[in-house]
Amino acid sequence: MSQKVDLYDSAYGNYVSDTYRHVRIETYGEDFGQTSWVTTEESNEIPQLLDLRPDSFVLEVGFGSGGYALHLAEKVGCRLVGLDINPLGVRNANQLALARGLGSMARFEQCDASKNLPFDDDSFDAVFSNDVLCHLPGRPEVLAEMFRILKPGGRMLFSDALIVGGLLSNEEIATRSSIGFYVYSPPGENERLLERAGFRRIRVTDTTESASRVAKQWHDAREKRKEELVAAEGDINFEGLQRFLSCVHTLTGEKRLLRYLYFAIKES
């Protein structure tokens, strides 16, 4: 069975490293500090899907490095709160916000988002989460909390890269799950849970091919910089992450694991 592999501490702890920055640029084409399957095209579409404006108040669940949230604050001018459980990510995000002069527009807090969210009812105009809900237990409760903190008419968006589309072996599941806790979903389950939480006008987009492409580009960009990355992560962790990325590429390329983007509204 595959042993546990560190992705997030390495990514956030080495955020300012030129090696990691070049890997992100080569993987995604633009550096938002990404550790997900979100393409740059998808990143550019999110503000339109959520109808973000300068007076919007936005929540990101699982912000990672904070880079994308700060990009939204700069591009749109909206106020933003980010929640993440990783302390290195929280520290990195708040340091970035201060360095870019965005401390009054964006704040980042350590929080287990599988618990009750620390906000009043009807607080946010939009909430989004990129490839994070699959890490959280209790998805029905998480979606209910997102619904609760959204204002009437508010929009939500999340992606799930662990929709089961075909046969998976135990070793493939172990390798795909080697970077942390994961929940795998059958097709249609997220739509059912969104409706149960109260969301309406649900739209689903299949982004599996993009995820497969990102995984391959990420793997290859890291392989080019093996020596530097082994020095930062250690040989065992480097090889473990390479196996993880190869597994993602294979499973999504063969459509045995799917990635869907979900959009929904809390109707007035």
UniProtKB/TrEMBL annotation:
Start and end residues of each Methyltransferase type domain: 59-158
Top-rank taxon of the source lineage equals Bacteria
A biological process (GO) of this protein is: methylation
What InterPro entries does this protein map onto?
Methyltransf_11 (IPR013216), SAM-dependent_MTases_sf (IPR029063)
Task: Indicate the segments annotated as coiled coil, or none if absent.
Answer: none
Pathway entry? Lipid metabolism; Phospholipid metabolism
Q: Which UniProt keywords apply?
A: Methyltransferase, Transferase, Ubiquinone
Annotated Pfam families: Methyltransf_11
The Swiss-Prot or TrEMBL record annotates one GO molecular function as: S-adenosylmethionine-dependent methyltransferase activity
- Name of the protein in its database record: Ubiquinone/menaquinone biosynthesis C-methylase UbiE
Q: Which organism is it from?
A: Tunturiibacter lichenicola
